[in-house]
Amino acid sequence: MCLSDTFRRQSGVRLLPPMLYKAPANPGPIRVKKKPEVTLDPENWAELRALGHRMLDDMIDYIEHIRERPVWRPIPQEVRDRFRADLPHGPSDLAEVYEEFERFVVPYAAGNVHPGFMGWVHGGGTPVGMLAEMLAAGLNANLGGRDHVPVEIERQIVEWARQMFEFPQGSSGLFVTGTSLANFIAILVARTAALGKEVRKRGVARDGAKLRAYTSAAAHRCIPLAMDLCGFGSGALRMVPTDGRCRIDLAALREAIEEDRANGLEPFLVIGTAGTVDAGSVDDLDALATLCKRENLRFHVDGAFGALLVLSPELKPLVKGIEKADSIAFDFHKWGQVPYDAGFLLVRDGELHRETFITPAAYLRPGAKGLAAGSPWFSDYGPDLSRGFRALKTWFTLKTFGTDRMGEVIARTCWLARHLEARVRAEPRLELLTPAQLNIVCFRYGSDDRVNAKILVDLHESGIAAPSTTTIGGKLAIRAAFVNHRTQTSDVDALVDAVLRLGPLAEEEFRTP
C-alpha cells in the first residue's frame, strides 16, 4: 500500500477513481520569456557589514544602558501614525529603515528588558540569547524535520528537559510559541489517551461528550480556551475553588470528580498549576499526582514560569510531584531568560504524543539516508511543519550560564518579592493583599480602587516602574511580578517610594469637594 493510500485510510479523505480523471490535452512546446536575474542580497557587502556591526553595537548599548531609559513611555500619535502607511512597492535604503527603527520603535517598546518592568511574567532576555537569535536567523533553519544539526540541538534540549524533570527515557518534547500552545497540545494528547487515536478521524462528538477535565479557578485563561479548541468546549472544564493560599482545593476537587461520575460523566484529566498568574501560587502537585493515579486520571501541569523552580535547590520542594506528571508545559522565555519566544512541552509517553499528530504525506516521507532522513521529525509531535530555531537561543543560554546560575537568579527574584512584602507590611498606608509565595506580591495604597488605578497609570507614565493590576478579594491590587534578572533591591524600593509619592496626588484628584 502506498503512503497516499495510508493517508486516505487514516484521514477519511475520498478520491475519485482513476478512470474519472481526465488528462489535459497536450499543449505543445512551452516557451517561457526569460526574466532578468534578481536577488535580495546586497550589492555592496562591505556597506551591509558596517551597518550590521553598528546595529549590533547599538543593541548591546541599549541593553547595557537600559537603566538610563524609562521602563515605558506613551506612544505619541504622530509615531503611531507612521505605522499606518501604505504598502511599500519600491525599495528603501536599509540605513533609512534602520534609522526609523531607532527613532520610532526602540523608545516605545514594552520595556521588559528594563529592571523596572514588574507588570507581567516576562523574562528580561540576555545579550547571549540576542546573539544566538541572530545566528539562528542567519542559518534560517526549519526544524519541522529532516537530517541537520539544528534538529539535533532541539533533541538535546528535549533530553536536558527530561533530566530537569526526572522524566523517563522515551519522553518527548517540543518547542512552541509559549505555554498557551503547549497546554493546548497537552490536552490533545490527553484526548488521544482517553479516546484513542481514532478520535482524530471521527472527532469527539460521539465519545467525548461526557469527558470532564478539572483545574483551579486561579488557572490561566488559556486552559478553558484549549478545551474549546480541542472540541470539548470550555463547559467540559470544571473550575475548582481555591484554598486560602490560592491553590486548588483538593477536597473540592475530589467532590467534583465524585459528583460527575455519579451523574454519568467521565473524568479524564486534572491540570495543576505551578505559579498562578495572580499570586504565584503552586498547587499541591504531589497530592494531585497521587489523586490522579488513584482515580486513573491523566495529570498535566501548567508550569508557565513555576516549573523552572526545579533549577533552584532551595525552591524545588515547592513543585514536588511535578516529576510524576504525564506532561508539563512551561516557558524558557520567562524565568529561563531566553528571548521571546521559547515555549516548551514535555510529555512522558513520547509514542502517545506522536500518535496525536503524525500525519503521513508523500511529500514528507522520511528517508533512511540523505537530507530527508532523521526520523521521527518534530512536525510529527505538533501542528507546525514550519518551525523556527528556538532551540539555539535556549541551548546558548543553558550552555553559557548553566542551570545552577539560572536557579540562583530564580531564587533571587523570589527574595525580591519577600523584600517588597516587608516594605508593604512596614508602611501603614499600604495594604498587603497576597504574601510573597514565589515572585509575585499584590498590594494597594489606601482603600479606593480608583486611586490605585490612577497610581498604576502614573507609575507607567513616570517611567520608574511598570507593575500591573489584578483583583484580589474584590479589591483592585497593584501586582508586582519579579522575573527580570536585572531587577535589584533599589528597583523595588523605587516602586514603593513612587507609590507613596503618587498616592496622595491620586487621592486629591478623587477627593469629593
Care to describe what's here?
This protein is an alpha/beta fold and 513 residues long. The protein contains 15 helices and 11 strands. A hairpin with a 5-residue loop joins strand 8 and strand 9. Helix 5 runs antiparallel to helix 13 and helix 14 packs across helix 15 (489-510).
Q: What is the strand and helix layout of this fold?
A:
Blueprint: H1 3-11, H2 45-64, H3 77-82, H4 94-104, H5 127-139, H6 149-164, E1 172-176, H7 179-195, H8 199-202, E2 211-216, H9 222-229, E3 237-240, H10 250-262, E4 266-273, H11 285-295, E5 298-302, E6 327-331, E7 343-347, H12 350-355, H13 390-425, E8 430-434, E9 440-445, H14 449-462, E10 468-472, E11 475-481, H15 489-510
Parallel strand pairs: 2-3, 2-4, 4-5, 5-6
Antiparallel strand pairs: 1-7, 6-7, 8-9, 9-11, 10-11
Report a brief summary of the structure.
The protein is of the alpha/beta class. The protein has helices spanning 3-11, 45-64, 77-82, 94-104, 127-139, 149-164, 179-195, 199-202, 222-229, 250-262, 285-295, 350-355, 390-425, 449-462, 489-510; strands at residues 172-176, 211-216, 237-240, 266-273, 298-302, 327-331, 343-347, 430-434, 440-445, 468-472, 475-481.
